[in-house]
Amino acid sequence: MATMGPMGRIATAILDSLIGDGCAACGMPGPPLCAPCADAIAPLGPAACTGCGHPWPVPCAACGQCIPGVAWARQAAPYRYPVPDLVSAVKDLHRRALAPLLADVMVRRIAPPPPGAVLVPVPLAPRRLAERGFNQADLLAQRLADAWGVPMQPVLSRPDGAPAQRGAGAPARRRQVQGAFRAVRPAPLHAVLVDDVVTTGSTLSAAARALRTAGCARVGAVSLARVAPVA
Q1: What is the mean pLDDT of residues 133-145?
Q2: Cα–Cα distance measured from residue 142 to residue 120, given in angstroms and rounded to the nearest whole number
Q3: For residues 141, 143, 148 and 153, what is the CA-based torsion angle, rounded to 10 degrees?
Q4: DSSP E strand stretches across 131-186
Q5: 42-226 adopts what CATH topology?
């Protein structure tokens, strides 16, 4: 079977946006994310922890929510309605036109990375990429790169064979991603990982370890949402 080219992917995304299945959260006919559901995406709150961006009531330089190996991290929203429905629609229903709209939420709520930073999407394993047809982190990173005017480089790869992270507990997640990533090219000095949802931070931590092994001096991370208590 022939692989869809860039123009075909663009046309598919436009058609999905114009005549898709309606809002992925409420089902209202129209765009994949209607205005009321977009407005319903709650803000995470101002970053009080300068390390991970968690909105504690008292400022701190680091906290128990920080991700090992990641110097700084920011998320746009808590992982609660309608975010889980939107993320599931992208991953499970292959509604790729949603990804740029979710990236726009990140652009509005997360400050751009400092000059010299390079966006690095968290990769999918080849089998999962083939099943889905795209990597949602790639789509988010592409939109962020355009909006922020920063480069994006697919530095990391992830081999097949590791169990799926979704639904696993924290200890299992840490085991599953040990050594799961490797760099396929030299890493930038300041890399900013891009992913959709942070649950325990194990994936970002493992990806950061691979980047540092490849020569990266500082690793940050930006994500749409984080599964964490919001103060």
Answers
A1: 98
A2: 10
A3: 40
A4: 156-157, 182-183
A5: Rossmann fold (3.40.50)
